[in-house]
TrEMBL record:
Domain CGL160/ATPI: 15-78
Membrane topology of the entry: Multi-pass membrane protein
Protein name: CGL160/ATPI domain-containing protein
High-level lineage: Eukaryota, Viridiplantae, Streptophyta, Embryophyta, Tracheophyta
Localization terms from the record: Membrane
One GO term describing the cellular component: membrane
This protein's UniProt keywords: Membrane, Transmembrane, Transmembrane helix
Amino acid sequence: MEMFEDDRRRVGFLEYEALKRELSLMTTTVAALCSIYCGTVLSLEASVSYTIGALGSLLYLQLLFRHADNLSEENVATVFRGKRHKKIGVRSSDLQIAFGKAVFGSISALSSPRLVIPVTLYGLWTLDHQLGFSQMDLQITPMMFGFFAHKAALLVQAFRDNKDLDMEFEKESQTSSLGRRS
């Protein structure tokens, strides 16, 4: 039985590593295609700004992978590990737990090095506009869209993993006959 558990864990780990590689590749592909699109349709400045944001997106994704790799039960605050008891009504202990989760969750989110990336992108744009730091006019909107390139890859992966999301619509003749009165 222990052998089966080890095999299952090994397969899960290999699937996780494949998912990380696929998301990185898909993010790079989305970023490259959108950068080319920005360069041909919009402007060179928009393309460079998008590319800078997309590089930030790739860095963000790698930091997210590292965070997930290092995540273990010891790294999670005790307030998040507690079992939830089924009770009717709200008790003072429920409020204390909710407050603790909000505080520890906020501290955890704000102390993340991943938060530095969008702040750095905004700081780079501010320096460019305030000090005339470069010959090129960086644009904040394409830069932020580039930063969210990993979200497009995640959406593609979510749709790919959930084949049951396909929706079937009724034919128009059936729906139009329902709306008529006899």
